[in-house]
Specification:
By secondary structure, the chain is α/β, with parallel strands linked by helices. It has 10 helices and 8 strands.
Length: about 210
């Protein structure tokens, strides 16, 4: 878990990917790797998610691929069996969190309130997701939550883009930001993987310039 957190922190940005068709998984992974960001959170919002994770981790083993929007323990098993290295849930679901902890699977549950952060802290978690970030008060809320829970860090997702990335990365309680602006669904559907590669390179350069 410590090594994985270091990888995520080094990447600074975690692309949040929605794939409607598994045929797009390999070219998307290629674009991210060549763009300098070998990392992805593939959301379980579509039927193609499981196979997409399997393809990405098989063809690009250097990638750190996780599963997002995980809502059931059955999805946890499917994601891990497909090759996912971590699980992200949009909320704090005790059943999913405890299931992952028992199986020693890295889990980043969504937490937006003191009660949720407290539950995560009691279970020994060091990093939680903060979603949807912009709608729940962005950086100011994260700082307020971090004040009493000094050992907790956050991975915000939701509404983060090039315009507000600096505000998030200036906060030392944030390990990395989830974002989808470089992997937008319309670009994937149109097969514009060169454009995704370019946007990824730009995102990496921006993130590194902001977090020195």
């Amino acid at each position: 878990m410590t090594e994985m957190l270091e990888q995520i922190q080094n990447h600074i940005i975690v692309p949040v990917v929605v794939l409607e068709d598994a045929k797009d998984a390999a070219p998307l992974a290629k674009a991210l790797v060549e763009g300098g960001l070998p990392c992805a959170e593939v959301t379980f919002r579509t039927e193609a998610a499981e196979e997409s994770i399997r393809i990405m981790t098989s063809e690009y083993p250097e990638m750190l691929v996780g599963a997002g929007t995980v809502l059931t323990t059955e999805q946890v098993d499917r994601a891990i069996n497909a090759g996912a290295k971590f699980i992200v849930s949009p909320d704090f679901d005790p059943e999913i969190v405890d299931y992952c902890i028992a199986k020693e699977i890295p889990i980043f549950p969504g937490c937006v309130s003191p009660s949720e952060v407290a539950q995560a802290a009691k279970r020994g978690l060091k990093v939680v997701k903060f979603f949807p970030a912009e709608q729940f008060g962005w950086v100011s809320t994260i700082k307020a939550l971090a004040a009493p829970y000094t050992n907790m860090k956050f991975m915000p997702t939701g509404g983060i883009n090039t315009n507000n990335l600096e505000s998030y990365l200036n906060c030392n309680k944030i390990v990395a930001c989830g974002g989808s602006w470089m992997v937008k669904g319309d670009l994937i559907k149109a097969g514009e993987f060169d454009k995704i590669k370019d946007l990824t390179q730009e995102a990496v350069a921006l993130a590194k310039s902001l977090r020195k």
